[in-house]
Amino acid sequence: MRAVLVLTTFASLGAGQSGAAQGLPDDDAVRAAWKRLTSEERIEAAEFFRFECDQLSLTKLELLRKTLALAGEDPESWPAWSEPDFYSPEVHAPGLPIPRKRLGPKSKTLATQLERFLPKPHARELLSAYRYDWGTGRIHRSGDPWDPDALFENLMRGHAPSTDLANALLLRALDDGKQRKTLAAFGHAYTDREGNVFTGITLYDAWRSGRLIEMPDIDALGIVHDVLDEWERWVSPVPASQQTPLYDLVGELFAPARSHKELRETLAGLFLGANPAPVGTYAGLHTSLHALWVRAGSDPNRMLELLPEEAKRTAAWIKRTAKIAADDPETFDAGLQRQAELANDEERLRRTMSEVLRKMGAFDERPKGEKSARER
Q: How many domains does the chain fold into?
Protein backbone atom coordinates (compact mmCIF):
# COMPACT_ATOMS: atom_id res chain seq x y z
CA MET A 1 0.00 0.00 0.00
CA ARG A 2 1.38 3.37 -0.97
CA ALA A 3 2.71 5.64 1.78
CA VAL A 4 0.12 8.18 2.91
CA LEU A 5 1.02 11.63 1.63
CA VAL A 6 1.59 14.46 4.04
CA LEU A 7 -0.28 17.70 3.52
CA THR A 8 0.63 20.97 5.18
CA THR A 9 -2.61 20.91 7.13
CA PHE A 10 -2.12 17.26 8.11
CA ALA A 11 1.52 17.22 9.10
CA SER A 12 1.14 14.08 11.22
CA LEU A 13 -0.68 11.96 8.65
CA GLY A 14 2.34 9.82 7.82
CA ALA A 15 3.00 8.97 11.46
CA GLY A 16 1.74 5.86 13.24
CA GLN A 17 0.20 2.69 11.91
CA SER A 18 -2.01 2.57 8.87
CA GLY A 19 -5.74 1.83 9.08
CA ALA A 20 -5.06 -1.60 7.63
CA ALA A 21 -2.50 -2.38 10.34
CA GLN A 22 -4.81 -1.21 13.10
CA GLY A 23 -7.83 -3.02 11.72
CA LEU A 24 -10.63 -1.36 9.79
CA PRO A 25 -13.35 0.06 12.07
CA ASP A 26 -16.85 -1.20 11.40
CA ASP A 27 -19.43 1.01 9.70
CA ASP A 28 -21.05 2.07 12.96
CA ALA A 29 -17.72 3.27 14.33
CA VAL A 30 -16.94 5.18 11.13
CA ARG A 31 -20.37 6.83 11.14
CA ALA A 32 -19.99 7.77 14.77
CA ALA A 33 -16.56 9.29 14.05
CA TRP A 34 -17.98 11.38 11.22
CA LYS A 35 -20.76 12.70 13.47
CA ARG A 36 -18.18 13.89 15.97
CA LEU A 37 -16.69 16.28 13.41
CA THR A 38 -17.85 19.86 13.27
CA SER A 39 -19.25 21.26 10.02
CA GLU A 40 -15.90 22.85 9.22
CA GLU A 41 -14.05 19.63 9.98
CA ARG A 42 -16.35 17.67 7.68
CA ILE A 43 -15.56 20.02 4.83
CA GLU A 44 -11.85 19.60 5.55
CA ALA A 45 -12.16 15.81 5.80
CA ALA A 46 -14.07 15.63 2.52
CA GLU A 47 -11.47 17.77 0.74
CA PHE A 48 -8.64 15.69 2.10
CA PHE A 49 -10.41 12.46 1.18
CA ARG A 50 -10.85 13.71 -2.39
CA PHE A 51 -7.15 14.50 -2.48
CA GLU A 52 -6.32 11.01 -1.27
CA CYS A 53 -8.57 9.49 -3.93
CA ASP A 54 -6.73 11.45 -6.61
CA GLN A 55 -3.52 9.67 -5.58
CA LEU A 56 -4.97 6.15 -5.67
CA SER A 57 -4.74 3.78 -8.62
CA LEU A 58 -7.90 1.70 -8.39
CA THR A 59 -10.08 0.16 -11.08
CA LYS A 60 -13.13 2.04 -9.75
CA LEU A 61 -11.33 5.38 -9.80
CA GLU A 62 -9.79 4.83 -13.23
CA LEU A 63 -13.24 4.09 -14.64
CA LEU A 64 -14.60 7.11 -12.82
CA ARG A 65 -11.98 9.44 -14.30
CA LYS A 66 -12.65 8.03 -17.75
CA THR A 67 -16.36 8.72 -17.36
CA LEU A 68 -15.97 12.26 -16.04
CA ALA A 69 -14.12 13.10 -19.25
CA LEU A 70 -17.44 12.62 -21.07
CA ALA A 71 -18.86 15.83 -19.59
CA GLY A 72 -17.60 18.01 -22.41
CA GLU A 73 -18.65 21.17 -20.56
CA ASP A 74 -18.70 22.64 -17.08
CA PRO A 75 -21.50 20.99 -15.08
CA GLU A 76 -22.13 24.38 -13.48
CA SER A 77 -23.53 25.48 -16.84
CA TRP A 78 -26.25 22.82 -16.71
CA PRO A 79 -29.75 23.99 -15.78
CA ALA A 80 -31.11 23.48 -12.29
CA TRP A 81 -33.68 20.74 -11.85
CA SER A 82 -37.27 21.86 -11.43
CA GLU A 83 -40.45 19.97 -10.65
CA PRO A 84 -42.05 18.41 -13.74
CA ASP A 85 -45.02 20.08 -15.36
CA PHE A 86 -48.46 18.52 -15.23
CA TYR A 87 -50.73 18.06 -18.21
CA SER A 88 -52.94 21.06 -18.92
CA PRO A 89 -56.67 20.39 -18.58
CA GLU A 90 -57.47 23.08 -21.12
CA VAL A 91 -55.27 21.44 -23.76
CA HIS A 92 -55.86 17.75 -23.20
CA ALA A 93 -59.30 17.55 -21.61
CA PRO A 94 -61.26 20.72 -22.43
CA GLY A 95 -64.50 18.80 -21.93
CA LEU A 96 -63.54 18.12 -18.29
CA PRO A 97 -61.18 20.96 -17.30
CA ILE A 98 -60.62 20.15 -13.62
CA PRO A 99 -58.17 22.74 -12.21
CA ARG A 100 -54.83 21.35 -11.01
CA LYS A 101 -53.31 22.30 -7.65
CA ARG A 102 -49.91 21.26 -6.29
CA LEU A 103 -49.90 19.78 -2.82
CA GLY A 104 -47.39 21.36 -0.45
CA PRO A 105 -44.71 19.54 1.52
CA LYS A 106 -46.89 19.48 4.67
CA SER A 107 -49.74 17.70 2.90
CA LYS A 108 -50.66 14.37 4.53
CA THR A 109 -52.22 13.26 1.24
CA LEU A 110 -48.90 13.85 -0.52
CA ALA A 111 -46.99 12.01 2.20
CA THR A 112 -49.28 9.00 1.84
CA GLN A 113 -48.84 8.90 -1.92
CA LEU A 114 -45.07 9.31 -1.72
CA GLU A 115 -44.95 6.26 0.54
CA ARG A 116 -47.23 4.30 -1.80
CA PHE A 117 -45.53 5.03 -5.08
CA LEU A 118 -41.84 5.58 -4.39
CA PRO A 119 -39.71 2.57 -3.44
CA LYS A 120 -38.04 2.63 -0.06
CA PRO A 121 -34.40 3.81 -0.32
CA HIS A 122 -31.97 0.95 -0.82
CA ALA A 123 -28.93 0.66 1.45
CA ARG A 124 -26.65 1.28 -1.57
CA GLU A 125 -28.74 3.91 -3.33
CA LEU A 126 -26.66 6.73 -4.80
CA LEU A 127 -27.32 10.22 -3.43
CA SER A 128 -26.99 12.49 -6.42
CA ALA A 129 -26.55 16.19 -7.09
CA TYR A 130 -27.36 15.57 -10.76
CA ARG A 131 -30.38 14.19 -12.59
CA TYR A 132 -30.58 12.89 -16.11
CA ASP A 133 -33.79 13.95 -17.85
CA TRP A 134 -34.92 11.05 -20.03
CA GLY A 135 -37.41 13.29 -21.79
CA THR A 136 -34.85 15.78 -23.07
CA GLY A 137 -31.50 13.95 -22.93
CA ARG A 138 -30.06 16.70 -20.72
CA ILE A 139 -28.43 16.59 -17.30
CA HIS A 140 -29.65 18.93 -14.58
CA ARG A 141 -28.14 20.09 -11.33
CA SER A 142 -30.30 18.97 -8.41
CA GLY A 143 -28.10 19.47 -5.36
CA ASP A 144 -24.71 20.49 -4.00
CA PRO A 145 -21.94 18.31 -5.48
CA TRP A 146 -19.58 19.44 -2.72
CA ASP A 147 -21.82 18.53 0.23
CA PRO A 148 -19.45 16.69 2.60
CA ASP A 149 -22.24 14.73 4.28
CA ALA A 150 -23.47 13.44 0.91
CA LEU A 151 -19.90 12.48 -0.04
CA PHE A 152 -19.53 10.55 3.23
CA GLU A 153 -22.90 8.81 2.95
CA ASN A 154 -22.20 7.80 -0.64
CA LEU A 155 -18.84 6.43 0.41
CA MET A 156 -20.52 4.27 3.04
CA ARG A 157 -22.83 2.99 0.31
CA GLY A 158 -19.88 2.03 -1.89
CA HIS A 159 -19.61 5.12 -4.10
CA ALA A 160 -16.48 7.17 -4.76
CA PRO A 161 -16.61 10.99 -4.91
CA SER A 162 -18.29 12.34 -8.08
CA THR A 163 -19.98 9.01 -8.83
CA ASP A 164 -23.28 10.89 -9.09
CA LEU A 165 -21.93 13.05 -11.92
CA ALA A 166 -20.42 10.02 -13.62
CA ASN A 167 -23.70 8.12 -13.35
CA ALA A 168 -25.60 10.95 -15.04
CA LEU A 169 -23.01 11.09 -17.82
CA LEU A 170 -23.27 7.33 -18.32
CA LEU A 171 -27.05 7.50 -18.61
CA ARG A 172 -26.70 10.20 -21.23
CA ALA A 173 -24.15 8.13 -23.13
CA LEU A 174 -26.26 4.94 -23.01
CA ASP A 175 -29.54 6.56 -24.01
CA ASP A 176 -30.09 6.40 -27.77
CA GLY A 177 -33.22 8.53 -27.44
CA LYS A 178 -35.59 5.96 -28.96
CA GLN A 179 -37.93 6.20 -25.94
CA ARG A 180 -37.46 9.92 -25.36
CA LYS A 181 -40.94 10.97 -26.46
CA THR A 182 -42.62 8.34 -24.28
CA LEU A 183 -40.43 8.99 -21.25
CA ALA A 184 -41.09 12.72 -21.61
CA ALA A 185 -44.81 12.00 -21.49
CA PHE A 186 -44.53 9.77 -18.42
CA GLY A 187 -42.21 12.36 -16.88
CA HIS A 188 -45.18 14.63 -16.18
CA ALA A 189 -46.36 14.98 -12.60
CA TYR A 190 -48.85 12.44 -11.30
CA THR A 191 -52.31 13.83 -10.53
CA ASP A 192 -55.66 12.48 -9.39
CA ARG A 193 -59.25 13.03 -10.46
CA GLU A 194 -59.71 15.73 -7.82
CA GLY A 195 -57.00 17.83 -9.44
CA ASN A 196 -54.26 17.23 -6.87
CA VAL A 197 -50.71 17.41 -8.27
CA PHE A 198 -48.30 15.22 -6.32
CA THR A 199 -44.92 16.90 -6.11
CA GLY A 200 -42.10 14.36 -6.32
CA ILE A 201 -44.20 11.69 -8.09
CA THR A 202 -44.28 11.34 -11.86
CA LEU A 203 -46.61 9.30 -14.02
CA TYR A 204 -43.63 7.00 -14.57
CA ASP A 205 -43.30 6.47 -10.80
CA ALA A 206 -47.00 5.71 -10.47
CA TRP A 207 -47.06 3.20 -13.33
CA ARG A 208 -43.82 1.53 -12.23
CA SER A 209 -45.15 1.00 -8.69
CA GLY A 210 -47.59 -1.66 -9.86
CA ARG A 211 -50.23 -0.22 -7.53
CA LEU A 212 -53.77 0.76 -8.40
CA ILE A 213 -53.58 4.33 -9.64
CA GLU A 214 -55.95 7.03 -10.71
CA MET A 215 -55.70 8.04 -14.35
CA PRO A 216 -57.65 11.22 -15.01
CA ASP A 217 -58.61 11.84 -18.64
CA ILE A 218 -56.13 14.71 -18.63
CA ASP A 219 -53.13 12.45 -18.01
CA ALA A 220 -54.19 9.45 -20.07
CA LEU A 221 -55.09 11.61 -23.06
CA GLY A 222 -52.01 13.77 -22.59
CA ILE A 223 -49.78 10.72 -22.99
CA VAL A 224 -51.65 9.54 -26.09
CA HIS A 225 -51.58 13.04 -27.58
CA ASP A 226 -47.85 13.53 -26.98
CA VAL A 227 -46.60 10.07 -27.94
CA LEU A 228 -48.94 9.09 -30.77
CA ASP A 229 -50.35 12.47 -31.82
CA GLU A 230 -53.76 10.77 -31.64
CA TRP A 231 -56.42 13.39 -30.84
CA GLU A 232 -59.59 11.96 -32.36
CA ARG A 233 -60.05 8.42 -31.04
CA TRP A 234 -60.83 9.59 -27.48
CA VAL A 235 -62.22 12.89 -26.27
CA SER A 236 -62.78 13.91 -22.67
CA PRO A 237 -64.87 13.01 -20.81
CA VAL A 238 -63.97 9.49 -21.90
CA PRO A 239 -66.99 7.16 -21.57
CA ALA A 240 -66.61 4.24 -19.15
CA SER A 241 -66.87 1.79 -22.06
CA GLN A 242 -63.75 3.30 -23.66
CA GLN A 243 -61.58 3.68 -20.59
CA THR A 244 -60.16 0.14 -20.57
CA PRO A 245 -58.82 0.26 -24.16
CA LEU A 246 -57.39 3.73 -23.44
CA TYR A 247 -55.58 2.55 -20.32
CA ASP A 248 -54.40 -0.61 -22.09
CA LEU A 249 -52.83 1.53 -24.79
CA VAL A 250 -51.08 3.70 -22.21
CA GLY A 251 -49.75 0.52 -20.60
CA GLU A 252 -48.46 -0.71 -23.96
CA LEU A 253 -46.56 2.54 -24.35
CA PHE A 254 -45.15 2.36 -20.83
CA ALA A 255 -43.73 -1.19 -20.91
CA PRO A 256 -40.95 -0.68 -23.50
CA ALA A 257 -40.10 2.74 -22.06
CA ARG A 258 -39.61 1.17 -18.65
CA SER A 259 -37.44 -1.62 -20.08
CA HIS A 260 -35.32 0.96 -21.91
CA LYS A 261 -34.77 3.09 -18.82
CA GLU A 262 -34.24 0.37 -16.21
CA LEU A 263 -31.70 -1.53 -18.30
CA ARG A 264 -29.61 1.59 -18.76
CA GLU A 265 -29.90 2.56 -15.11
CA THR A 266 -28.65 -0.90 -14.18
CA LEU A 267 -25.72 -0.78 -16.60
CA ALA A 268 -24.73 2.70 -15.44
CA GLY A 269 -24.69 1.53 -11.82
CA LEU A 270 -22.63 -1.54 -12.68
CA PHE A 271 -20.06 0.44 -14.62
CA LEU A 272 -18.64 1.75 -11.33
CA GLY A 273 -20.23 -0.46 -8.68
CA ALA A 274 -19.79 -4.11 -7.76
CA ASN A 275 -23.37 -4.52 -6.57
CA PRO A 276 -25.27 -1.22 -6.81
CA ALA A 277 -28.85 -0.75 -5.68
CA PRO A 278 -30.94 -3.08 -7.86
CA VAL A 279 -33.19 -1.57 -10.49
CA GLY A 280 -36.29 -3.50 -11.50
CA THR A 281 -35.59 -7.22 -11.82
CA TYR A 282 -31.92 -7.02 -12.78
CA ALA A 283 -30.30 -7.87 -9.43
CA GLY A 284 -29.74 -11.50 -10.42
CA LEU A 285 -27.97 -10.42 -13.61
CA HIS A 286 -25.28 -8.24 -12.04
CA THR A 287 -22.38 -10.60 -12.70
CA SER A 288 -23.52 -11.32 -16.26
CA LEU A 289 -23.79 -7.59 -16.92
CA HIS A 290 -20.31 -7.06 -15.50
CA ALA A 291 -19.20 -9.62 -18.07
CA LEU A 292 -21.00 -7.62 -20.71
CA TRP A 293 -19.04 -4.53 -19.67
CA VAL A 294 -15.90 -6.63 -20.15
CA ARG A 295 -17.08 -7.54 -23.64
CA ALA A 296 -17.66 -3.84 -24.32
CA GLY A 297 -14.18 -2.96 -23.07
CA SER A 298 -15.79 -0.75 -20.39
CA ASP A 299 -16.67 1.66 -23.19
CA PRO A 300 -20.19 3.17 -23.06
CA ASN A 301 -20.24 3.66 -26.83
CA ARG A 302 -19.44 -0.01 -27.44
CA MET A 303 -21.99 -1.03 -24.82
CA LEU A 304 -24.62 0.97 -26.67
CA GLU A 305 -23.93 -1.17 -29.73
CA LEU A 306 -24.56 -4.33 -27.68
CA LEU A 307 -27.97 -3.25 -26.39
CA PRO A 308 -31.21 -4.45 -28.00
CA GLU A 309 -32.21 -2.35 -31.00
CA GLU A 310 -35.79 -2.09 -29.80
CA ALA A 311 -36.95 -1.95 -26.20
CA LYS A 312 -39.63 -4.57 -26.88
CA ARG A 313 -36.84 -7.06 -27.56
CA THR A 314 -35.27 -6.53 -24.14
CA ALA A 315 -36.68 -9.75 -22.66
CA ALA A 316 -35.03 -11.89 -25.35
CA TRP A 317 -31.81 -9.90 -24.95
CA ILE A 318 -31.84 -10.53 -21.20
CA LYS A 319 -32.21 -14.29 -21.76
CA ARG A 320 -29.16 -14.28 -24.03
CA THR A 321 -27.15 -12.22 -21.54
CA ALA A 322 -28.08 -14.56 -18.70
CA LYS A 323 -26.50 -17.43 -20.67
CA ILE A 324 -23.13 -15.71 -20.98
CA ALA A 325 -21.66 -17.94 -18.25
CA ALA A 326 -22.31 -21.02 -20.39
CA ASP A 327 -21.80 -19.48 -23.82
CA ASP A 328 -18.64 -17.50 -23.02
CA PRO A 329 -17.15 -18.70 -19.70
CA GLU A 330 -13.92 -16.78 -20.23
CA THR A 331 -15.76 -13.46 -20.47
CA PHE A 332 -17.98 -14.43 -17.55
CA ASP A 333 -14.92 -15.14 -15.40
CA ALA A 334 -13.52 -11.75 -16.39
CA GLY A 335 -16.82 -10.25 -15.29
CA LEU A 336 -16.49 -11.96 -11.92
CA GLN A 337 -12.99 -10.52 -11.60
CA ARG A 338 -14.24 -7.05 -12.54
CA GLN A 339 -16.97 -7.29 -9.93
CA ALA A 340 -14.50 -8.46 -7.27
CA GLU A 341 -12.05 -5.65 -8.08
CA LEU A 342 -14.76 -3.03 -7.70
CA ALA A 343 -15.81 -4.56 -4.36
CA ASN A 344 -12.20 -4.50 -3.15
CA ASP A 345 -11.88 -0.90 -4.26
CA GLU A 346 -14.93 0.04 -2.21
CA GLU A 347 -13.26 -1.45 0.85
CA ARG A 348 -10.04 0.42 0.06
CA LEU A 349 -11.92 3.71 -0.13
CA ARG A 350 -13.58 3.07 3.23
CA ARG A 351 -10.16 2.34 4.69
CA THR A 352 -8.86 5.61 3.27
CA MET A 353 -11.69 7.56 4.87
CA SER A 354 -11.03 5.78 8.17
CA GLU A 355 -7.38 6.86 7.97
CA VAL A 356 -8.43 10.46 7.40
CA LEU A 357 -10.86 10.38 10.31
CA ARG A 358 -8.32 8.73 12.59
CA LYS A 359 -5.73 11.40 11.88
CA MET A 360 -8.33 14.05 12.66
CA GLY A 361 -8.98 12.43 16.03
CA ALA A 362 -12.58 11.68 15.12
CA PHE A 363 -12.52 8.20 16.65
CA ASP A 364 -11.68 9.70 20.05
CA GLU A 365 -14.63 10.35 22.33
CA ARG A 366 -15.01 14.06 23.08
CA PRO A 367 -16.55 15.41 26.24
CA LYS A 368 -19.48 17.68 25.39
CA GLY A 369 -18.21 21.09 24.36
CA GLU A 370 -14.56 20.02 24.11
CA LYS A 371 -12.73 20.91 20.91
CA SER A 372 -11.05 18.34 18.72
CA ALA A 373 -7.29 17.89 18.68
CA ARG A 374 -7.19 19.81 15.42
CA GLU A 375 -9.04 22.79 16.94
CA ARG A 376 -6.83 23.07 20.02
A: 1
